[in-house]
Amino acid sequence: MRAIFLLAAACATGGSNYGTVAIKSFSNAAAPAARFSVGERTISGSSLYAVLDQGCIRGSVGRAPIGFCSDPADPNHWSGISGDFTAVANPDGHSVNVDGYLTLDTRRQASMTQVVRLGDGPQWDELRKNPALAAIAATAADLQAAHIRY
After folding, report:
1. pLDDT given at position 15
2. Which of 26, 9, 44 is nearest to 35 (CA)?
3. How far apart are CA 62 and CA 140, in angstroms?
4. CA–CA separation, 120 vs 110, rounded Å?
5. In terms of Cα–Cα distance, which of 94, 98, 81, 80 is closest to 139?
6. CB atoms < 10 A from the CB of 101, how many?
7. What is the sign of the dihedral through the CA atoms of 134, 140, 144 and 145?
8. What angle do CA 52, 128, 23 make, to 5 degrees?
9. Contact at 8 Å (CB) between 81 and 67?
10. For residue 135, what is the DSSP state?
């Protein structure tokens, strides 16, 4: 039964898998890097699942659902039930500048403001193409490093 479930889950994800990225926490450099699998317009890990579809990012960070949509007037600006942020890839392609917040629950917000360093390879190219996914993954890495329950 377990094998059938795993096979069904693998088929359901579809899309390409470009590889794994390791993102260090911006707020806690001593913490181990969080690892995420990157696919076409998707990123996932133990505490994150996010899919970019039709201008919106949906999924979850920990147990909290996330929902952001890009601003038609500024595709670098994302807002929704989960907060508000901008994510801009630097022209040199080595980092993403992020500014904003993620709403954890009705009483708590987590800062997303940071610079996300990008590496080389197809998985990093996908995050350069979709810097909002890099921003969300880096925030998930920060929350994991800080042991914040969400």
Report:
1. 62
2. 44
3. 8
4. 28
5. 98
6. 16
7. positive
8. 90
9. yes
10. H
How big, in percent rounded to 5, are the helix, strand and coil portions of the chain? 25, 45, 30
Q: Distance between CA 85 and CA 94 in Å, rounded?
A: 20
Q: DSSP secondary-structure letter at 121?
A: S
Q: What is the pLDDT of residues 42-89, one digit of tens each?
A: 999 999 999 999 999 999 999 889 999 999 999 999 999 999 999 999
Question: Is 117 in a helix, a strand, or coil?
Answer: strand
Token couple for 20: 């794994």
Residues 131/88, Cβ–Cβ less than 8 Å: yes
Q: Which residue do the tokens 């795993």 mark?
A: 6
CA atoms within 13 A on the CB side of 145: 21
Give the C-alpha distances (Å, rounded to integers) separating 4 from 8, 12, 26, 44: 6, 12, 39, 21
Q: Are strands 83-89 and 108-111 parallel, antiparallel or unpaired?
A: unpaired
pLDDT at 12 over 50: no
pLDDT tens, position by position, 98-150: 999 999 988 999 999 999 999 999 999 999 999 999 999 999 999 999 887 65
> Which residue's entry shows tokens 């708590």?
108
Q: What tokens were used for 32?
A: 């181990």
Largest CA distance in the chain: 49
